[in-house]
Amino acid sequence: MEFPSPKSTKMPFEYKKVLMLGATSGIGWALAAKMVENGVSVIAVGRRQEKLDEFAKQYGSGKATVDTAAFDITKLKEIPGFAKEIFSKHPDLDCVFLNSGLQRHLDWTKPENVDLDTMEQEMLTNYTSYMHLTKAFLPYLQKQAPKPTSLVFTTSGLALVPIIYCPNYCASKAALHHMILAMRQQMKQIDSNVKIIEVYPPAVQTELHDDKHQPEFQGKGRSLGMPLDEFTEEAWAGLSADDNEQVPVQAVKTFMGFNGWEKERQGTMMKMMEMMKKSH
């Protein structure tokens, strides 16, 4: 099992064209911009066409090509057609970056106020849609073998350590984290050309916490967490390292346990895999 270490070797990001979902704001926008600045072509995807147009205008004359596609990942039945359309236009696409997400407050002490529709939408956006996107895009990436390709997932430090403010968000990220761990090992067992990468942000100052999404913060949400530019620099360094399968950022590495008990937990997973191999 490979884990990031302080001695990771800095290398150029190995993929040349990235489909960035959730590119209209926050982490997605910042990382997509960073990629273009480093000569990586980007296809920016999001629901808001005006924000996609803004991204293309700002970065379209940079060091790499920029294309955009308006799409709502919660429209599950449209995902296969979307994947086909993207690869028809961009057959050289070698990295799909799944970054969209939403976070909502949930308080079980007042069950009469629990909105199950909101919970389902959160799980749909953060987990179920990712499974549909993975199923749709993975065959296209596999067909490019032996060319290296990748699926990159943005999860969260809250996949490792839940907080009581947004337990359903934490659960959705934990589910995705477990799926990624298993998926990565499945790909390794067949020596796949598709690398499975997970980025673990801590709290980051983005519109995820804005009042329009989470009024409980009462105007203080945007100040929560690390500055977006600092996150982007550290995440990009991790993605450009030689051991980039797992990219924990800032507090996730230490306070939230990645460099401690999470390594031990993943080590136990590997032991269980070996035990199961011997029993079959």
Give me the CATH superfamily. Answer: NAD(P)-binding Rossmann-like Domain
Largest sheet: 7 strands, parallel
Kindly report the spatial arrangement of strands forming the biggest sheet: 3-2-1-4-5-6-7
Topology-level CATH name: Rossmann fold
How confident overall, as mean pLDDT? 92
> What is the chain-wise order of helices and strands?
EHEHEHEHEHEHEH
Per CATH, the class reads Alpha Beta
Q: Extract low-pLDDT stretches.
A: 1-7
Helix coverage percent: 40-55%
Distance between the termini: 22 Å
The coarse silhouette is globular
Number of self-contained structural domains: 1
Number of DSSP E strands = 7
Class from secondary-structure proportions: alpha/beta
Describe this structure in words.
This protein has 280 residues and is an alpha/beta fold. It starts with 16 loop residues before the first strand and ends with a helix. The protein has a seven-stranded parallel β-sheet with strand order 3-2-1-4-5-6-7, with helices on both faces. The chain has helices at 26-37, 49-59, 79-89, 116-142, 167-189, 228-239, 258-278; strands at residues 17-21, 41-46, 66-70, 95-98, 149-154, 194-200, 246-248. Helix 1 crosses helix 6, helix 3 runs parallel beside helix 4 and helix 4 runs parallel beside helix 5. It has seven helices and seven strands. It has a single domain, classed as Rossmann fold (3-Layer(aba) Sandwich).
